[in-house]
Amino acid sequence: MLKLLIFRFSLCLLFFGVNLTSARQKNVYYDNIVAQVQANFNLHQPEKIYVLTSATFQKKMTGEQFALGMSKFHAKVGDWTSSVFKEQNEKGLDYLTVFENSRQVFSIRLDEQGKIDRLNFAAAPIVIPEKMDQVASNNPLKDTLDLMVEHVVRGYIQKGNTCGLVLAVINKGKVRKYSYGSVNKKLKQLPDAENTIFEIGSVTKTFNSLILAEEVVAGRMKLNDPINLYLPDSIPALNFHGKAITLQDLANHTSGFPRLPANIFNSSVDPKDPYKHYPVDSLYSFLMRYQPSVMPGTLFSYSNYGAGVLGTILERTLDSSFEQLILSRICQRLNMSHTGITLSNAAQRNLAQGYNETGEATLPWDLASLKASGAIRSTLNDMVKYARAQIEMKGPLHKAIALSHQPTFVGKEQSMGLGWRINRNGQHTYLHHSGGTGGFRSFVGFDPDRKIAVVILSNAAEDVTTIGEGFLK
To answer: What fold does the segment set 198-472 form as a domain?
Structure first.
């Protein structure tokens, strides 16, 4: 009996040893593949990763699609610095991977031939503890509005990855302003409504469209003009089944252009400043080879590139830089003296320090030829002037502003004016736009009928749209 037990135990050890050896060999083989993927990723050679994939994988995604996806991902996260095996599951093996600007869970599965059958990246969950101390503010907490602002902003500003926030509520001509947090995590200095400068990101697109609207009101341009009228003759006709892409299509994101052009990822991209290397020659180069695949004006698809093309058209047609256009056409007329793109030495000292999604300090962004999609920097007081102009409808820009509010596209999920998103809440309609760069978030929204508006600027990449829309709703 004893001999039988010893024999069975020996078989168990042998079986366990074989499985353990097999598992180790499997992990070693996986580790080698992961190392190859990492090396080729850092060398910007996605085609060498693609040849490691299985026939099944390649049926789902072409080499061109794969290369574009990997290039976009590299532009966002930077070089791949390390990886450590995490676990095995039904989807394959997971590795905790560290990139220059991100931490990701890399999931990979190999088929029986040792080819990559599944490859996926997902942001590694990061727990950022909330701030222990009560973040400072100038909110007097005296009335209903004060308490409402405190309720919605306190949860935001106590997050570990946020820093500072300024907010203004405009109601029938009366303006209430609030400041929370700091201009820099190293300083205990509340953001100042008059002087502290924030990047407003994609709210810039509403300035872009307002310049277009003024040209249309003046009769110098038409919304249904094909964009080829304003582009170099060398660029082929941009149309789908005979229907041209128009200026309106650029302003309301129905052009069919991608969110970002594929050739923005062709050269080395700095994830901390991802657009600065993209000159106007590259913008035109993409247009030279672009083949429209969607009927213009029929589908909302948000496009930073489309906004950049519109800004470039305005520069080319009006013979002025985009910055000079916004300064002369909008900022000077609305007395917005602290708004622009290029910062003087004094203004740079007033620029708040931005922080990314994990609370790390970021650099200001340079958007090069895509500046019309999100390059403007401003203060709370200046953006209050801009918001008031949207609801007061007076002054030299009122006709262009009114035109920019008119619906130009009505979709199931999103309706658009010129630059402005249009949403309904019960019987009320409000217009709004959010913005974001590497270290900032912004929101401008208003209800022209009720004469209310909200402006929010934050020096952290934590979204503020929910806060802004909450007030308008």
So the answer is: Beta-lactamase (3.40.710)
